[in-house]
Amino acid sequence: MGRSGSIPSIVRPRSLVEDVAARLSEAIFEGRLAPGRPIGETELQRELGISRAPLREALLKLEGQGLVQIVPHKGAFVRSMSPRRIRELFTVRAWLEGLAARLTVERGDDAVCGRLEAILADMAALAAGGRFKEYFYRHWDFHHAFHESCGNEELAARIASLRRESLWLSFSVTYFAHRHAQAQTTHRCIVELFRAGVPEQVELAVRGHILEAADSYARFLQETYPEVAGSA
């Protein structure tokens, strides 16, 4: 019997591409692959024990997520984290996260306030102990708490992608070491607005917080990592 041309054969499991993409994403996120750096495909093939095809597919996936830039005839590069790019990503995030906060309040999810309070207490304790890598992840949890409670899975997924694209661990740990006190005060005000239960106020507060952070984070990058800020 001849093989049907309507159904392509399975060359490799999809999980291989997902695994490679996840490993590279984590390396970029944690700063082991620096912004603007070329991604050596031959070296990665040897290191990961894979062929060229799944690596290329993984790189295309990361390009779609905004973490990698593929330049024709030159290869793949880690996306630069310029101040302009940060401001653009944060601006989009500000409106989407503000909407998520508003929807959470409108749904009347009273439990979210308790989760936010608990996370905020953890953030304070971690900052007091100088544990800013852990602080970063709890700060991430703070925002995720109302994203997942907004009742819109598509919105939450888009926000998660934007946050991962714009808040890299290697930069953020240093940033929070200098800005944690102000950040905690702002997050405390946001929790109080969630408790007050006025959707418009929560939306504006979350949006304003992220827009303000766009400028401070961009300035921080320019002053602390000028080689990165100048790579765009």
Q: Order of strands across the biggest sheet? A: 1-2
> What share of residues is helical?
over 70%
Q: What name does CATH use for the topology of the largest domain?
A: Four Helix Bundle (Hemerythrin (Met), subunit A)
CATH fourth-tier homologous superfamily of the largest domain: GntR ligand-binding domain-like
Which CATH class of the largest domain is shown? Mainly Alpha
Structural class: mainly alpha
- Compute the average pLDDT: 86
Distance between the termini: 56 Å
If you had to describe this structure to a student in words, what would you say it looks like?
By secondary structure, the chain is mostly helical. The chain folds into two domains: 14-78, Orthogonal Bundle (Arc Repressor Mutant, subunit A), CATH 1.10.10; 83-229, GntR ligand-binding domain-like (Four Helix Bundle (Hemerythrin (Met), subunit A)). Helix content is 72%, strand content 3%. The longest helix is centred in the last third of the chain and has 28 residues, at 169-196. It starts with 13 loop residues before the first helix and ends with a helix. Mean pLDDT is 86; it is low at 1-11.
